[in-house]
Inverse folding.
């Protein structure tokens, strides 16, 4: 199939060699595939890893009032990468494509749940009691797949709701700041969108995980609920906030150089390049 006709791309880049439409199309679609692949692959990984393990970042010892432990779930570690990917897609390809990737990610969550359910529903070689329940081994544990399945079900149920809200907030806030600043101040729309969406995500995923999936009971056991939950929320958000601030540099330089690589007009000219033709070419 022939590559679609793309708008003129050389008037802004007289210092770069001209590209034929086929090469330009391959560059734009190839880079989109890289960003969307990183986004979706990271999303699938974090939903399976989820809350299978918590990492102890540090502990504040308080002999008279009880220690405060700052921990993040292992599934949170790669999560900031998903927001960097959607920011790149938003900047280079427009709001519609960024939103489409978010919705595909939501469907991917459902696919992960379906495979986990099917893997546990089909007959296997595990020992079962008369009532069909799994027989624990000598260590009192069920087969590792069922432990992963149980944790993943809880993590995915919480993250599906939080993820969809947070990623859509990220895309909309990103383009809100792009309109307000008329395409200028790249750092503002990058950090402004990510910091807001990460806060929404962190609150939602922790509260849903505890109150609806009961997956954090062991961490709260014997302690006051809200201090533990707010500590987890604060820890997760600070970690994501630091990552968001650190990714400003790669995003700023990446957007600048990738725009040249893809022969896209500067972001502050976005108002001149709206409409179906611009979106098709990745401008928006």
């Amino acid at each position: 199939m022939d590559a679609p006709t793309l708008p003129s791309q050389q008037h802004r880049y007289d210092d770069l060699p001209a590209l034929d439409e086929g090469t330009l199309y391959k560059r734009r679609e190839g880079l989109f595939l890289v960003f969307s692949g990183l986004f979706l692959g990271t999303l699938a990984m974090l939903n399976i890893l989820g809350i299978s393990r918590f990492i102890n970042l540090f502990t504040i010892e308080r002999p008279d009032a009880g220690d405060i432990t700052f921990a993040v779930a292992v599934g949170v570690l790669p999560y900031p990468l998903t927001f960097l990917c959607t920011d790149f897609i938003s900047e280079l390809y427009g709001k519609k494509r960024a939103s489409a990737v978010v919705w595909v990610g939501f469907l991917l969550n459902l696919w992960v749940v379906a495979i986990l359910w099917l893997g546990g529903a089909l007959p296997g070689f595990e020992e079962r009691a008369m009532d069909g329940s799994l027989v624990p081994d000598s260590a009192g544990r069920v087969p590792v797949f069922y432990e992963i399945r149980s944790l993943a079900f809880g993590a995915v149920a919480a993250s599906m709701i939080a993820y969809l809200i947070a990623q859509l907030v990220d895309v909309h806030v990103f383009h809100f700041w792009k309109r307000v600043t008329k395409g200028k101040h790249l750092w503002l729309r990058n950090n402004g969108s990510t910091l807001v969406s990460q806060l929404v995500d962190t609150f939602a995923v922790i509260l849903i995980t505890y109150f609806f999936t009961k997956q954090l009971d062991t961490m709260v056991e014997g302690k006051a609920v809200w201090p533990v939950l707010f500590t987890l929320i604060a820890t997760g958000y600070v970690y994501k906030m630091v990552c968001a601030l650190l990714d400003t540099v790669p995003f700023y330089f990446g957007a600048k150089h990738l725009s040249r690589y893809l022969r896209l007009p500067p972001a502050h000219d976005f108002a001149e390049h709206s409409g179906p033709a611009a979106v098709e070419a990745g401008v928006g």
